[in-house]
Amino acid sequence: MNGNTTGLGVILRRSNGNMISSIVGSVRRLTPLGNQLWAVFCGMRRAFLGTSRHVIVETDNLEAFGAIKFPNAATSPQVSSIVQQILLLKNNASWNCSIRYVYPRRNGVATYLALLGAELFTRLFFFMEPLGRAAELMDLDIGLGPHDPDLIEAEMVEEELELLEVALAAPQGPMEVGLAADFLAGAAFQMAPNAPDHQEAEIQDFIFEDDVEVEEEGVVM
């Protein structure tokens, strides 16, 4: 959860990192601390109204975490009211809920959503799909890397496949010359020679130099 002075962002995720839903927007009538606490509360409420019965709530705001941990130190009626709602919900016997503080670098998705909320909305909205580029930040959180198209593998389209076939078949192409061909030549493979025109190629097995033990119906390396 993250709530800055004008924006609020909440992401609800399963234990495997997949998104359940998110809450994005702004509540400009609240103080900065009230906004942070409301981010915690509305995320808890959404989880409670769903099917989740074992929930960990994370906030990167140490002041909000302290206000929940030490409720008697509330500095205003607004803060006290929100904290009491948080504690009532947290202690409900029908679920297991814990609240913990995390470093801001572990809360990038919620921070991003809060900033979007401040720029786009004047109230809170509920989303079932990642908003903006939140999906990329979620993948970064669980170690799946960025969504940079230069770094993501893609399937070849028909035109690219045709160009590949031409390149591989070229007399001076990568099958005959270049680093890949040199590597293959030094890898202890015996390659069948190219067949003359209008003649089938001789069938020849690829053979490693390693010794092999022949067994019935198979070869054990």
Automatic annotation (TrEMBL):
Protein name: Uncharacterized protein
Species name: Daucus carota subsp. sativus (Carrot)
InterPro entries: RNase_H-like, RNase_H-like_dom_plant, RNaseH_domain
GO molecular function: nucleic acid binding; RNA-DNA hybrid ribonuclease activity
Pfam families: RVT_3
Lineage: Eukaryota, Viridiplantae, Streptophyta, Embryophyta, Tracheophyta
